[in-house]
Structures are given as C-alpha cells and as structure tokens.
Write a structure and sequence with these properties.
- It contains 6 helices and 2 strands.
- It is mainly alpha-helical.
- α4 crosses α6 (about 130-150) and α5 runs antiparallel to α6 (about 130-150).
- It has helices spanning about 10-25, 40-50, 65-75, 85-95, 115-125, 130-150; strands at about 30-35, 65.
- The chain has a two-stranded parallel ribbon.
- The two termini are about 20 Å apart.
Length: about 150
C-alpha cells in the first residue's frame, strides 16, 4: 500500500505528489482503483483540470470502482449497519467476525473524516509527527477494512 503526503500545502508540492501517484500507478500496472464514494473520482477530475500537463493519459485505461455505490446498486444489506458508510458497514462486519480489521480507536486521535482533516491541518501547520502518524494509520485502516469488504465478494 502506498501513502502520499505532500511536503507542504502549495500547488507545487501538490503537483509533485500527484505526479508521483501517476508514476506509481503506471509502474505497478494498476488496472482498477477501488474507492468508497464519489469523492476520489471528482478529485481526480479536478486535478486533471488543474494540472493538464501531467501524464494523465497513462491512467486512461484504469477503472475506478465506487464500492459503496456498487453495494447500494446491488441492494446488499449488512445486519447491524444502519447506513452505507464505510465505518457502519466495517464495524458491523467486524462485530460479526466477518472481517478481521477495524479502526483502533484506543491509541489514535483520528476517529473520522473531520478528525482526519484537522490532523492534516495540525501536521502542516506545526509539522507534528504524531498528527501525521495518526492520520496515516487511520487512512491505512480505512483501506484495509475496504479491502476485506471487497474480498467478501470475490
């Protein structure tokens, strides 16, 4: 799993990290990107417009699958999950021993998306290593839970 962190909150640092992402996708021969919700696809569209000179053609054949939308389209329900959020479904499946990963809330200040944004701001404003560590761990837990949910259907 790769995580990308811009060195600072500037357009040039953002462009550098986006370029690094594109090159990694090409190097790793990625054919599918799994996301939860529509944010990532909208964000990529915005980045393509902002940095049209980057090697976007290398990503033209990559399929982006919104797992949340797929679950809703297929009318899949999860006992104990009251919404289609990753947290609701992931926690319900974890409580029923259907997946082995969950979010470790005991030693991480980042518990949700708002906390993640605040932790990112703290990191960039103060270069606080613990803020970046907690943010990376939270993101990794999101990815690993989503991976296990996807594996239920393969």
């Amino acid at each position: 799993m790769h995580q990308y962190v811009a060195s600072e909150l500037t357009d040039s640092a953002e462009e550098a990290i986006v370029r690094k992402f594109i090159l990694t996708v090409v190097k790793d021969r990625v054919t599918v990107l799994y996301v939860w919700g529509s944010y990532e696809e909208r964000f990529v569209t915005m980045l393509r417009a902002k940095y049209p000179h980057l090697p976007w053609r290398a990503m033209d054949g990559i399929e982006i699958i919104d797992v949340c939308s797929w679950i809703q389209r297929e009318n899949i329900a999860f006992p104990g999950a009251t919404t289609f959020s990753l947290k609701a479904i992931g926690k319900a499946l974890y409580e029923r021993d259907m997946i082995s990963r969950t979010w470790n809330s005991d030693d991480n200040d980042v518990q949700n998306g708002l906390d993640a944004m605040l932790s990112g701001n703290t990191y960039y404003e103060n270069k606080t290593p613990s803020a970046l560590r907690d943010l990376k761990r939270y993101n990794e837990e999101d990815v690993m839970v989503m991976k296990e949910i996807c594996e239920l259907f393969t």
